[in-house]
Write a structure and sequence with these properties.
The structure is a homotetramer of 258-residue chains. With 258 residues, the first copy, chain A, is of the alpha+beta class. In chain A, β5 and β6 form a beta hairpin. At the C-D interface, β3 of C face β3 of D. Chains A, B, C, D: Pfam families: PhyH. Chains A, B, C, D: This is Phytanoyl-CoA dioxygenase family protein. Chains A, B, C, D: Keywords: Dioxygenase, Oxidoreductase.
Chain lengths: 258, 258, 258, 258
Amino acid sequence: MSALSDEQLYLFDTTGFLVIPGVFGSEEVTAFRTELEGMDTIDPGFAETRRYRDLPSVSPLFAELALDERLLGPVRDVVNQPLRLLEGYALRRSRGSVLYMHGGNSELLDLGGRSVGRDLSITHTYHDGKLFCPYVKTLVYLSDIQSPDDGSFCYVQGSHKANFPLLRPRAERGVTTSLVDDGFPTLTDVFVRAGDVLVLNEALMHGTRRKLTDGDRLLAAFGYGPTYLTEWRELDGETGDLRGAGYVDHDVEEDFVR
Amino acid sequence: MSALSDEQLYLFDTTGFLVIPGVFGSEEVTAFRTELEGMDTIDPGFAETRRYRDLPSVSPLFAELALDERLLGPVRDVVNQPLRLLEGYALRRSRGSVLYMHGGNSELLDLGGRSVGRDLSITHTYHDGKLFCPYVKTLVYLSDIQSPDDGSFCYVQGSHKANFPLLRPRAERGVTTSLVDDGFPTLTDVFVRAGDVLVLNEALMHGTRRKLTDGDRLLAAFGYGPTYLTEWRELDGETGDLRGAGYVDHDVEEDFVR
Amino acid sequence: MSALSDEQLYLFDTTGFLVIPGVFGSEEVTAFRTELEGMDTIDPGFAETRRYRDLPSVSPLFAELALDERLLGPVRDVVNQPLRLLEGYALRRSRGSVLYMHGGNSELLDLGGRSVGRDLSITHTYHDGKLFCPYVKTLVYLSDIQSPDDGSFCYVQGSHKANFPLLRPRAERGVTTSLVDDGFPTLTDVFVRAGDVLVLNEALMHGTRRKLTDGDRLLAAFGYGPTYLTEWRELDGETGDLRGAGYVDHDVEEDFVR
Amino acid sequence: MSALSDEQLYLFDTTGFLVIPGVFGSEEVTAFRTELEGMDTIDPGFAETRRYRDLPSVSPLFAELALDERLLGPVRDVVNQPLRLLEGYALRRSRGSVLYMHGGNSELLDLGGRSVGRDLSITHTYHDGKLFCPYVKTLVYLSDIQSPDDGSFCYVQGSHKANFPLLRPRAERGVTTSLVDDGFPTLTDVFVRAGDVLVLNEALMHGTRRKLTDGDRLLAAFGYGPTYLTEWRELDGETGDLRGAGYVDHDVEEDFVR
């Protein structure tokens, strides 16, 4: 009944993510890549990066992928709530692109006049043998990433359960560069191949290295959460009549890196 | 900057609710009652109970009340996230009405093939001096409730932080009646007057006694939560394409009481 | 295998204590009272109170009682660690005696230059269906206590899981009297009869009312905890060579009441 | 007032340990080594390993080291309770020695008829900006360890906050070898030099690689905890009169490795 083994659950719990190798075969990977070739992209505002928006709405193939049990099975095991799809997109990145660090269990969020160390949209817990993660992403890799120079996924060990903030204190000490470039004692790289899936607890502080090699770095991503979460959209704070809905960012590196 | 005093925060934290007496004066209470007199109700399916739907949309007076700082101030102190309004309604109850017990931190929720003891829509936490409650209601009382026979609000002590379920094990022991009628060692009544506000952590197991007196029992209720919560609507499990959104009930007394 | 029923575990978890009525019959109660009549007492420094020290060492009857399964069974269910006996004593109290409030999950403890809101000797947790309480007492009542004037056990609801301190902020607001005399919105009394047992999580903020009736108030108390706890003895802070062992009090009412 | 910087606290919290490089200079290291040369050892039952017992009692130099602020400062920052010294010893290891994995936040402990996933002697928590770890060791390295073949300290990422057990499920799947030899996806090595100090939360699952190089691997270790902990000594379960005191092992690799 469980899609994940005991050891996979242990790894997801203790590290905040799990790589499942070879979930999709080369023909499926090729089909996903081909499907994306014909689709429009937008500029998400990150250097050398193109974004494919709302995959499940614009592509039957990706609508099917979003509900594929090879993704949903592991997700159900770590959300353990009635599930909904929050978002689906793809990213195509070229040489020079980067994704700065974000996430982190206790990074700060400013409210009017107060600052808090919890973002409930990523606050996860455990009870009676089950994990409860409100915001989980599956990353379906469509190209190999075998070195930091390929722009590898990287994470800060244990940050999904951190009790302290890291980014704002670091900025207050005068650091204005990214962990991605500076390194950090527990910043760790993850290497994958096309067809691998990375299941991610969004509470983990993660990003990618700066891509320094040629060729595309391509992946599709699907976000899932409990049914009472709204579809993912950024909200720039509260609306006056408290009718606006969306996710408000806590501290991320973009707030501090120059 | 904080609307609640240290002692009020202590009480809300340790008991799961807080009564703030005399928030609204008699003229305001009269205005709210008069406003309701002219509005339509629906049958919510509970005996001797009429429900006024979506108050903020149909009444400017209640739209204003939903954003009144006398309600929002305390709510902000216990949600500590960017806030949104999840719902607003009123209930008019007569002799014979009752509200069975619901809530409870660890009551069970059935998913396909598994049963879990967490409903993340009410799972609250604490960090660095602040409470984080995802689902908080304010009850604005518009009539006096001075005895159990008036249908008083009642709660099970400490149930908002319970580690065990109460209702399903009780039903499995063969009990098919309500705590409201049977009593329970830690079932406790709360008496209020018109104009009082009760701020409620929805994780608390609460209900009301069976109303045995004449006259109306009238209150307006407003639910608040973080911006990433969808507007409150009941959802009967997942939808097939994971596009449905809403709140799924964990065990409540209606599941077991005959 | 479990000594406590589901409902008893639920009550202990949610309220921080459990009364088990009629554990000891009247003959046993009489035997315990008779045994105490012949034993020496000391002055513990509380008005109208005599203390019997180290019962299990000086009395075979109480050595046996300390290990009676009617006490150990419930204790094992809420400690869930290899067990040891930390202390055993009796208290005989007369008119005018009182026990001020102590315990509380987040009351403050001063270390050199810092103040902390955790006393690990009472910090309890829950995991996979089991409670883990490091310091649990059983109170064996040897007289009836049927009103506050009898000096009833009283507690602050939910204080065993409080996230905030109560006593020092209260003192800092200028209050120098006891909750026992002042009352508190959630201060609740417990009435018992001779032969009843009260199982207590020492994290609960508790005390007794001021005894205003004639006659003795008599009970025997046994403290239990994991094997890695030292026998209970008060320690007035750290020793210079870090060789001293004992329990250091966090804030209690005696620190503030005049 | 804090001995550890923000970043050091973040690292200790998220990884369960902290290396502080160069705490002791080469002259001090030489003095510690020389002191040990003249002292007796015992056979602790591990291959190619000699143990120096109770350093603070038998050596004024090590008695002083146990109280050195360079050790106590960091320890105080992560225990945050009145402190006591639980143990002090040294280990001299030669080619062929190994230390199998032990620790882990949720490894199992058998009680009479039940099995529990908490050992309160290592159960740590966080509250209001402070860590509370009941059992912390400082390892003072007296030789360089620069590769796995030197028998490096190794740990399982995030195991100090694991919600699941690892070792018994692994044994039940039929694995009878050590993570130290088999590897594990998140088993990570730590390299140090003589004079470095490693501050360790004993909840971390840790051990060392098998030493395959010549020369001694030498370190002194001091354990600290709250004053209500007894001095460290192994206890083989409860004693019949509940008077025995000591630490009872939960699952460790020695239980399963053949």
